[in-house]
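Lay summary. Proteins are chains of building blocks that fold into shapes, and those shapes determine what they do. In this project we predict the shape from the chain. Here is one chain we studied, written as its sequence of building blocks.
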Amino acid sequence: MTFTWADFVSAEPRFAGTVQSRFEKYRHHVLATLRKDGSPRVTGLEVTFRWGELWIGMMPHSRKAQDLARDPRFAVHANPGPDDRMADGDVRISGRAVEVRDEEVRARFVGELSPPEPFLLFRVCPEEVAETSVDGSDLVVRVWRPAGPVRTLRRGPGDGPPREDPREEV
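And here is the predicted shape, written in a compact code that computers can read:
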């Protein structure tokens, strides 16, 4: 089953709000796609949240568009900000990018956002959403996958295994 951003928001509204807010803080982010040979490609990108969905757009003949046409798997990492404080945590979304060819959806997108044309429009289907932050001496990772609720893992400064927190309010 394919999950959409709206499905994620429905399943985990507070966590989805945290992630969306973090992405909306800055305009430019980093997209990772897969090249023909399977090696990673990273490139700059803007993301757009509209109508309860997450969208990415790009020029039709860009390398990242060619990568996604061949293999829709991607990861997008939120801009970490202007310094090393990471005050709002670190977030990323990975999944599949599905090209949108529906002319009504594309026209609505153009009408509201006026992207440079021509462009390709992709709807994000998240398969993993993660937030990393620091709490005291612990590294805290919150992860959502479509199969269940948000999991929270903590790793301390030693070499012990991560500890799973009981479900926290996210």
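What the prediction tells us: The CA atoms of residues 56 and 130 lie 18 Å apart.
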